[in-house]
Amino acid sequence: MSTFTPVDWQTRPAPQSAGEWIARAAEVATVLATDAAARDHAGATPYAEVQLLKESGLVTLLGPVAHGGAGEDWTTAYRVVREVSKADGSIAQLLGYHYLWNWAARLVGTREQWEHVEAEAARNRWFFGGAVNPRDADVIVTEDGDDLVFTGRKTFSTGSRISDVTVLEGVFEGTDQHVFAIVRSDSDGLTFHDDWDNIGQRLTESGGVTLDGVRTPWSSAAGYVDKKFQPRIYNTLNVPTIQLVFVNFYLGIAAGALQTAATYTREKTRPWLHGGHERAVDEPYVIDIYGDLTAKLWAVEALADAVAAEGQRLHEDPDAVTEQTRGEFEVRVAAVKARATDVALEVSHRIFEATGARSTSHAEGLDRFWRNVRTHTLHDPVFYKRREVGRWVLDGELPEPTWYS
């Protein structure tokens, strides 16, 4: 477990603008960067890292100002995730998923429910996890008086083991009707397994979870009124919203890879003995690599910011979201997801062409950028993202809302 040098955030005025919050995220990234490679190698549960996110105020970025939140919007949240991921992709993923799960009450719940959840989350600086992996056989939900009972298992539950509250998802027994509810992460019957052992995103605590009769009041069933779900098209915005989280931590990881590699090239890379240059930074091929990769990254960052702004307009008027506006937004998200995936993978492996053989040392940890991108970009096949865009271009076909589109 890491310990960080204390930062005086508690004695300083809270950021008052989007730019100041992004600068705060950059400060957090600076702290995380001090031992990022060592923490990645250790793979320890990130208790100290989550505490850092709380102390910095980043966990309440989207929360209501009246209850201690920053009242910022999704365009700022995405940029914050991107900044943090320059230093540590795992912690950025945890933060981005936290934002989505915190917002899930607003996406799915009634006004009374989401106002209550957001107020409590901001006041108590809750950190959210989620046990909502759609690829597993669904958790079964039954009724017991005024309670709902969740029973089953999920293979992945990102962040739950170090969270204060967890979003549960299951299906009512004998139906195809889904239900979401937020419970305390220390609830009876909720067991998180220490079985996340993947090559990348190693600190995300994305292991499995068992739900053995986890109870929660009927009133916590998001979006249900008198035991009947109240559907809105806005409910389906969860997928493009979280996919933009993915986009931004991919881009942040790529930017961090470039920054770290450039520092290594300036300070350690030796020029090729037959190249005729005294410094590696004067090698034409090295200059070309950094110029090429930076130009590609900047282009996708600009697209990501534009798409985030389009999504924010939908979030600002949920009741006005239509199948058409939702579908067109998903197409745009699919396009930037595809480009971010390709560019982040290219950046994170091509940096080695500019840093040289010695940069592959285990101690340098440059491989973590590629491992992190490669691991998470397998979340869903990029082929299907390009397909969404292609079908829309050729036939005007809008993506059907699913767990992945």
Automatic annotation (TrEMBL):
> Organism's domain of life?
Bacteria
Say yes or no: keyword Electron transport present: no
Its GO biological process annotations read:
L-leucine catabolic process
**Which keywords belong to this entry?**
Flavoprotein, Monooxygenase, Oxidoreductase
Where do the Acyl-CoA dehydrogenase C-terminal domain residues begin and end?
245-379
Show the InterPro entries listed in the entry: Acyl-CoA_DH_C, Acyl-CoA_Oxase/DH_mid-dom_sf, AcylCo_DH-like_C, AcylCoA_DH/ox_N, AcylCoA_DH/ox_N_sf, AcylCoA_DH/oxidase_NM_dom_sf
Q: Which GO terms describe its molecular function?
A: 3-methylbutanoyl-CoA dehydrogenase activity; flavin adenine dinucleotide binding; monooxygenase activity
Q: Which residues form the Acyl-CoA dehydrogenase/oxidase N-terminal domain?
A: 28-116
The protein's name is Acyl-CoA dehydrogenase family protein
